[in-house]
Design a protein that fits this description.
13% helix, eight-stranded antiparallel β-sheet, Thrombin, subunit H, 3 domains, mainly beta, Pdz3 Domain, seven-stranded antiparallel β-sheet
Length: 493
């Protein structure tokens, strides 16, 4: 069976005569009061009765919405002379999948392409300002040498890319035209799960195709997209819809169709749109400053499960657990430590780890934030001055050999050497050489570095044994693995 694949919606295609298409999310949408005339009328005194005896419900008519706002949706075609458009490598006909988990992939629709000549791709976009400002996805225009925008009245314009923000996957274009049809934007926060929505784009190159569905979920976090909480829909979404608008019942744009989750590369009812308020924040910065800045706290975080909550004395699993702190970053300067659980940001609750990155990223570098944290069984407050998201640095883990043991955990460990501590910029830790029993069942692996036990730093085997002996039924190990640190709760043997 093919693995499920999350794919970004735009497409790379080759050479004159061949064309490729991007993909979009689409959901059904009820018309607003402005379109009331096109909604089927049902006589309440004599409701239609279905065969099974249940009252039939009239479905919405979207023709009024499409007629009024469809002209603001544009087709975007791009060309590149170096085969790098839309993330494609110059020596490979397959998408660049580096850095994405196995089950998630960028959304491309590829054809066999000659090795010579320009690369072509297509996507969608929409006009937000009558003077020619167009929004689309960053991956639609990424690497393009030429960007062409085509309106529904067949006029075509060469677009200038004002700016691209890969963090949120938003690009802002400008075309030389006036008095253009433009969309109006809505508030994604007011959108309810189950509401009808409509998407317009050019799936597989079919211009101005309308699809509909409902909002399946809100605030959906996806791998490799931790700075955006997506609107999930069940609309028919396919390559070429990338960058197109997602409309609500009032004819307002509430999102930009960006990704799908698919086994086949086509629509399977799992589409994801970037909330329009996120896109408009990006657009305002690009138009005003020519670039986008995002705040950075400089910590790695993970979810708090029931076992970790019990270890840290929390009444329920909530918040974002700090697993590592970037040296000299905003979090370190504010006093954050591994083992702290961030419960609030500027008074707003952090229900889970996926809540924190988009909130931080929406703020500007230099902004002051108040963090409500849980530490040592009590709630405290810290103030942090955010850095820039471009300042991020990785902390690298190390492995080793040699045998020292701890039977209750079921692991064999040894201390880090001075060279390993220096190379990885950590004060100390114990390298896991072999693992079995309780630690293996919890997910500890050979090569992991145990940095702390129940938030207390550990440097020697004797310290580890002592800390474990004093623990109850469970122990929380702070483990450094590859480029990250995570807490692993272990039910002791």
């Amino acid at each position: 069976m093919q693995a499920n694949v999350l794919k970004r919606s735009a497409v790379a295609v080759a050479i004159a005569g061949a064309f490729a298409l991007g993909g979009v999310a689409a959901d059904r949408l009820l018309p607003s009061a402005a379109f009331a005339a096109v909604v089927p009328t049902v006589n309440p005194a004599a409701p239609t009765v279905a065969v099974n005896g249940a009252p039939a419900v009239a479905l919405p008519d979207f023709s009024g919405l499409v007629e009024q706002y469809g002209p603001a949706v544009v087709n975007i075609s791009v060309t590149s002379d170096n085969r790098k458009v839309l993330g494609q490598d110059e020596n490979d006909d397959t998408p660049d999948l580096q850095g994405l988990p196995p089950q998630f992939r960028q959304f491309f629709h590829n054809f066999q392409m000659p090795r010579q000549g320009p690369t072509r791709g297509v996507g969608s976009g929409f006009i937000i300002d009558p003077d020619g400002i167009v929004l689309t996805n960053a991956h639609v225009v990424d690497g393009a040498d030429n960007v062409n925008v085509k309106l529904t009245d067949k006029r075509e314009f060469t677009a200038k890319v004002l700016g691209v923000d890969k963090t949120t996957d938003i690009a802002v274009l400008k075309i030389d035209a006036k008095n253009l049809p433009a969309v109006k934007t809505g508030d994604p926060a007011q959108t309810r799960v189950g509401s009808w929505v409509v998407a317009i784009g050019q799936p597989f190159g079919f211009e101005n195709t309308v699809t509909s569905g409902i909002v399946s979920a809100k605030s959906r976090a996806l791998p490799e997209d931790s700075y955006v909480r997506f609107i999930q829909t069940d609309a028919a979404v396919n390559p070429g819809n990338s960058g197109g608008p997602l409309f609500n019942l009032k004819g307002e744009v509430i999102g930009i169709n960006s990704q799908i989750f698919s086994r086949s590369g086509g629509s399977q009812g799992l589409a994801f749109a970037i909330p329009i308020d996120v896109a408009m924040q990006v657009e305002q910065q690009i138009v005003k400053h020519g670039k986008v800045s995002h705040g950075r706290l400089g910590v790695a975080i993970q979810d708090v499960n029931q076992a970790l909550a019990a270890n840290f004395g929390l009444k329920s699993p909530k918040g974002a657990l700090v697993s590592s702190v970037q040296k000299d970053g905003a979090g370190a300067k504010a006093g954050l430590k591994p083992g702290d659980v961030i419960l609030t940001l500027n008074g707003e609750e952090i229900a889970g780890s996926s809540d924190l990155p988009p909130k931080i990223a929406s703020l500007s570098p230099g902004a002051s934030v108040t963090l409500g944290i849980w530490r040592d069984g009590a709630e405290k407050h810290l103030t942090a001055t955010l850095g820039s998201i471009d300042d991020g640095k990785n902390i690298v883990a190390s492995g080793g050999k040699q045998d020292l043991g701890n039977a209750r955990l079921g692991i064999a460990v040894r201390p880090l050497t001075a060279e390993e501590r220096r190379d990885n910029d950590i004060a100390g830790g114990l390298v896991v050489q072999d693992v079995a029993g309780a630690a293996e069942r919890a997910g500890v692996r050979p090569g992991d570095v145990i940095v702390a036990v129940n938030t207390q730093p550990v440097r020697t085997v004797e310290e580890l044994k002592s800390m474990v002996a004093k623990s109850g039924k469970t122990v929380a190990l702070l483990v450094q693995r590859d480029n990250a640190q995570i807490f692993i709760p272990v039910t002791l043997g």
